[in-house]
Design brief:
Length: 193
């Protein structure tokens, strides 16, 4: 296993790695360095278990940056492809975790927030992140609205439902863009923050 703080590979039991990942203990001088540390840990394989359904494995790990609560600290959304079966269809969806940075006296600490978001979509108003559920047998796209308050992610209770192919869905998608994903080994977006 890779210790992203020390840059050393070693043998750690899963309990110790799990505890280290979810305990906020390291301060970094910049938001970029805090997020880079998260990506290094995921890339090294220390964090595969953060994604649901580990029996399917973690594949095509990617991320994007997006300020989903207008606090001038962009969140980092990290996703992995996951096979999804619906009746007689099977397709690939992106299951994601949201990370934020907390300002401390010594710098910044990354924090994984408390949710999974499927197939995220950005809000044009930067006040939330939409999660998409596709129900193909019913030709439906259901959009759940996730927002952050006090470093906790909440899901707004009433999802918006659209029929696939309707103009209302096309208008919604045109206004609220899908993310541009970057491989977790590419720190380019972090450098451009």
């Amino acid at each position: 296993a890779y210790n992203s703080k020390t840059g050393v590979y070693g043998n750690y039991d899963k309990t110790g790695v799990f505890a280290a990942i979810f305990s906020v203990t390291f301060d970094f001088p910049t938001i970029q360095e805090a997020y880079r540390d998260v990506l290094r840990g995921i890339n090294a394989g220390d964090m595969d278990h953060i994604f649901m359904e580990p029996e399917n494995g973690v594949s095509n790990c990617e991320y994007f940056l997006y300020d989903m609560n207008n606090d001038e600290i962009p969140e980092m959304i990290v996703g992995s492809d996951c096979q999804w079966d619906e009746e007689d269809r099977s397709y690939i969806r992106k299951i994601c975790h949201v990370y934020t940075c907390i300002k401390t006296e010594k710098g910044y600490q990354s924090k994984q927030l408390n949710c999974y978001i499927w197939d995220p979509q950005m809000s044009a108003d930067h006040d939330c992140l939409y999660g998409n559920y596709y129900w193909y047998s019913q030709s439906a796209n259901i959009k759940y609205k996730y927002f952050i308050e006090d470093n906790i992610v909440y899901c707004y209770g009433c999802p918006e439902e659209y029929k696939i192919g309707d103009k209302a869905l096309e208008d919604f998608d045109a206004k609220n863009p899908k993310p541009v994903w970057t491989k977790i080994s590419d720190y380019g977006p972090l450098l451009r923050m």
